[in-house]
Amino acid sequence: MSSVPSPTTRSYDALIIGGGHNGLVCANYLARAGLKVAVLERRSIVGGAAVTEEIAPGFKASIFSYLMSLLHPRIIRDFELKKHGLTVLPCSDMVSPIDDDSYIVFSDDMAKTQASFAKFSKHDAAIYPEFDAYLQEATKIVRQILWETPIDPARRDWRTFKQGAEFLWKYRKIGRKMYRIVDMMTMSAYDFLREWFEDERVMAVLAYYASIGTFAGPKTPGSAYVIMHHVMGEHEGAGGWGFIKGGMGAITQSLASYGRSVGVDIVTNADIKEIRVAGGRATEVVTATGDVYRAKAIASNASARHLYLDLVGEQHLPAEVVREIKGYRTMGTAFKMNVACERPPQYKILDRVKADGVLGSFPYPTYMHIAPDIDYLERAYDAAKHGWYSSEPFLTPVVPTIVDDTLAPPGKHVVNFFGGHAPYTLKGGDWASEKENFKKTVFDTIERFAPGFRNDVIEAQLLVAPDIERIVNLPQGHIFHGELSTDQLFFQRPVSGYADYRTPIQGLYICGSSMHPGGGVSGIPGHNAAREILRDLKKSMR
User: Fold this and answer.
1) Which partner for 265 in 38, 67, 466, 475 could form a disulfide, CB atoms 3.0-4.6 Å apart?
2) Pairing between strand 37-40 and 9-17?
């Protein structure tokens, strides 16, 4: 008869709740500074939404996040991730089919993009370089702000005044360019793009980014900013995008490898039951099995809503924080389908794309967007807005196995389909009975552009928002931990007064995508949170 291990008590300088990429980044910076650190991960593997797992015998897929774009070069350098197994592979230029025999190519190569736009509008092709320069100038400013700790403009103490003055002085040269950022944060993607372009098929190429992972359409106010959020990646590739050899799990595995090399303890199957608070300070973390972990600093990579309402509890929080976090919008409408198949989708435009030579050395378009025009994107949102899944969802099909032979048996392939919209809750229905119907809808959409793909499918794993929430605990399946809207960004993310990675509980921090600058596999929230934790610990030792 086997005995049940007795609960243990362990002490550290810092604890990280959640082994997603931001949690690992935060842990690594703290350990590099000399702290004794532990990461507590609920699942049996680390990685959060950046994981690679088997979907069929011999087939592995990036289950949730599927392309590298935002992981910052600074993070890669600081943790020597290439030495710890990280290899970035190229993907093709993005191809967007318009109908049975026409398409648009969106490339880092300005001339190639212009030539593609020109097939639909000479005006749009001519204006694109000016638009790109305009967008890149705004993006350059925002890239700097990503690394800032948001100030609380409501405070009237000398320290906040000093921080505000330093912030304004640092960015004093922005001048009138700030209006560009204000426009993008308040305008819809459609209105913003309409000031530049005339053809809605061209506009859809850029407006597509505004719908990725958000509960919004291209005509939703504030959706223009999300375009910029998706193009802020700074590494080389098609629009900053690339594949990771071995799937996105290789990012978090390399982060974990570095962490272990500097002494980070990574504990899996550690489901957190509560964070104990005494005298207004977080003192220890208790797991579902009764293990107790104590630390001077506790940082949560879990969503802010889960942290505040489930792990801490309303009784320890100011009423205003409880009210705001309950109102924090996290309705997920994104879905993911991972497919093991005999061959990738054979698009109607494929022969023409190959004949035109726009793919360069790539034998196949590894990165595509399916959304022929603005109305297509807006209709997909309209369905979700009224409580149902889209009958024609927008789709991002990517085929990593064109460049990565580690994910499938020889001659076989894995295709990741990311898309929207399919809301977390269905009005007048439920996912238990509708999921298979929606899977058929997704395949119908693919078949419209690539007839016969169903016949090549070996296995298909469909994940809708409740699945994403259940597996990786993202709130309501929202891939960014919350909407990227003006009222949920910078000094209001996730709640006003506590956007500086701290919480109302002393010694308790948030290091995940609920904080500035938001979601995506960037590592920046983890970096910024570690900086503030180290600042507070240094101050406490004076």
Assistant:
1) 38
2) parallel
Burial class from Cβ neighbours inside 10 Å (0-12, 13-18, 19+) for residue 542 reads exposed
CATH number (domain holding residue 289): 3.50.50.60
Closest CA to 460 of 345, 369, 306: 345
Q: Is residue 101 part of a domain?
A: no
In a domain, 263, yes or no: yes
Q: How confident is the model at residue 164 (pLDDT cuts 50, 70, 90)?
A: low
| Pairwise pLDDT comparison (174 vs 467), residue with the higher score | 467
Structural domain range at position 497: 9-88+246-328+478-540
H/E stretch holding 508 reads strand 508-510
* Per-residue pLDDT reduced to its tens digit, 432-445: 999 999 999 999 99
In the three-class reduction of DSSP (H, G, I as helix; E, B as strand; rest coil), residue 147 is classed as: coil
Residue 213 lies in a domain: no
Name every residue whose Cβ is closer than 8 Å to that of residue 312 and which is 6 or more positions away in sequence. 274, 275, 277, 282, 503, 505, 508
Radius of gyration over alpha carbons of the chain, in Å?
A: 23
- 482-496, pLDDT tens digit by residue? 988 888 888 889 999
Overall number of domains in the chain: 1
